[in-house]
Amino acid sequence: MEIFLQQIINGLVQGSVYALVALGYTMVYGILGLINFAHGEVVMIGAMLALSALTALLGWGVTPLLALPISIALAMLGCMVLGYGIERIAYRPLRHAPRLAPLITAIGVSIVLQNLAMMIWGREYHSFPQLIANTPHNIGGAIINNIQLIIFILALAIMAALMVVVHRTRLGRAMRAVAENQHAAQLMGVDINRVISITFMLGSALAAIAGVMVSANYGLAHYYMGFILGLKAFTAAVLGGIGNLRGAMLGGLLLGLIESLGAGYIGDLTGGFFGSNYQDVFAFFVLIAVLVFRPSGLLGERLAERA
Amino acid sequence: MSLHSVRSLLFGTIASVLLSLTLYGCEKSATTDQKSSGDLVVRIGASAPLTGPQAHLGKDNENGTRMAIDDANAKGIVIGGSKVHFELISEDDQADPKTATIVAQKLVDDKVNGVIGHLNSGTTIPAAKIYSDNGIPQISPSATAVAYTAQGFKTAFRVMANDAQQGRVLGEYAAKNLGAKKIAVIDDRTAYGQGLADEFIKSAKANGAQIVAHEYTNDKAMDFTAVLTAVKGKKPDLLFYGGMDAQGGPMAKQLRALALKLKFMTGDGGYTPEFIKLAGTAAEGAYASLPGVPLDKMPGGKSFADRFVAKYGPIQLYAPYCYDAVNVMIAAMQKAGSADPAKYLSALADITYDGVTAKIQFDEKGDLKGGAITMYQVQHGKWQPLETLGAAETAAH
Question: How many Cα atoms sit within 13 Å of B241 on the Cβ side?
Answer without folding.
Answer: 32
